[in-house]
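Handout, page 2. Input:
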Amino acid sequence: MVTGGAGFIGSHVVDLLLERGWEVAVVDNLSTGREENLDKRAVFCGGDVCDAVGLDAVFCREKPEVVFHLAAQTNARTSLKVPAEDAVTNLVGSINVLECCRRHGVRKVVYSSSCAVYGVPVGLPVKETHLLAPVFPYGCSKRAVEDYLWVYRELYGLDFVALRYANVYGPRQDGRGEGGVIAVFADRISEGAALELKGDGLQTRDFVFVKEVAEANLLAVERGSGKFLNIGSGKETSVNEVVSLLSRLSGRVPEVRRGPAVKGEVRRMCLGVSLAKEELGWSSRVSVEGGLLETMEWLNKGRGR
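Output:
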């Protein structure tokens, strides 16, 4: 079962599961996900992780062996505006999923966490031993779910792996909604629109391609137990570099409008990823340029499957 399986990352997880011969059920309320993202071979159950009764009925019917929990409110700035809504979806919804897993004998949960649990890095690269000190409610809710995962493992024997994603990008990410900087910029460049850049553009992020994130999810099913693992490229890329690459790949030089930096935003981020290689045998191989090229090709095809 993939919660959030019609979403950006979730739909890529579904695709890879089907490719590897799994039977897949998808729980998604389509608040940000899209049914057209889904391969028709997947069983689309609809549903909402915040609906405990309805979710339990889906578990009763589908009887999942493994649950990939990706359903979430994913926008850090939204969590700042409406922290209670963020907590309901990300924390209460996740507890509903864990309760269903406990009651219905699920073997393992692969949880999509975030590097937001770390807050402002005290040094780079950020390893899993770094202090957990989130600066947005979004990071707080992700950290809290990690604690619940550990408790459910200790109390009920529910195995898990939590994957702390860097900045995921690639095809199907919606630049018009809650997408990251790459999705927003790629969208606007493809439309010939100006780019709104916050700050000087020297802020860096660790960008990791979505298909590699899906691969990490599948590897976590059989490898790793009770682990919290960073999933990233292990490299810093500045926002200015992203603009330059997108401009070169698209053949368009966009107008760039610069505004004030976002208060509280992390200046630099880069994840240490050696533990994921050790535990899962996973490492990122797709360069930012290669991933951007595939993303732009997808945009140019009109967002089709």
